[in-house]
Amino acid sequence: MNDEICVDVRDLGQRFGTMPFLWRHVTFSVRRGQTIALCGRSGCGKSTLLSIVAGWFSPTEGEVRRPDKARVSWVFQNPYGAVYRTVLDIAAYPLITRGWRRAEADAEALRVLAEFGLDELRDRLFAELSGGEAQRLMLVRAINSKPDILLVDEPTAQLDSKTALVVDDKLVALAGRGAAVLIATHDRRTRESCDRVIDLDTYSVEEGGGDEAT
Ligand SMILES: Nc1ncnc2c1ncn2[C@@H]1O[C@H](COP(=O)(O)OP(=O)(O)OP(=O)(O)O)[C@@H](O)[C@H]1O
């Protein structure tokens, strides 16, 4: 696995209208294999930064560089769409779009669903899932799209602590398979599982996860 830079954030600043800047001069890069936690109080702009990295809108200042053809996948707090499709359909879909045959895609999707404790829900409609189940399903879908860059917003917010640990482990494992992973989180354990913590409140960077950056 190479350690190519997948996300290169240079001197980023964001404000909405005449509001004060959420943050300015934010600079960091994420290599394949790295996990980064974005932290800070509610409203400090974690989701906004993820959206800019995803390319959904241009920042007020600075730029985000990504390698050409990098595959970006995201798991956001409120997953829209797919409400009347089944769990298995949603999990298998990214494999089918990558050229897998239906039966093989279903088998692989079921395998990953089982890792997240969701295989018994295979025939449920998305609309019938709890918040935590829906969040985990969107994570399975993102993993099955084999992203170079995975952006995740509050992956453990709606989960019990045991399930949250499983999700933290999966995110680290995905990075281990060569993805650059950025996670917006309030969860101390998620933060501790990451290689680096970026605190958007104070805008500071801490290597090695763990203690709160001050
Ligand atoms: N398109 C927009 N127009 C105006 N204001 C916005 C827009 N998007 C976000 N904001 C504001 O920018 C601030 C940062 O929002 P954001 O959702 O990024 O915060 P967050 O750190 O992810 O919060 P939380 O931890 O509660 O999810 C908030 O005050 C929000 O209301």
TrEMBL record:
UniProt-recorded Gene Ontology molecular function terms: ATP binding; ATP hydrolysis activity
Pfam family, one: ABC_tran
Signal peptide as annotated in the record: none
Record domain ABC transporter: where: 7-213
Organism superkingdom: Bacteria
Keywords: ATP-binding, Nucleotide-binding, Transport
PANTHER family: ALIPHATIC SULFONATES IMPORT ATP-BINDING PROTEIN SSUB 2, TAURINE IMPORT ATP-BINDING PROTEIN-RELATED
Name of the protein described by the UniProt record: ABC transporter
Provenance organism: Bifidobacterium callitrichos
Taxonomic placement: Bacteria, Bacillati, Actinomycetota, Actinomycetes, Bifidobacteriales
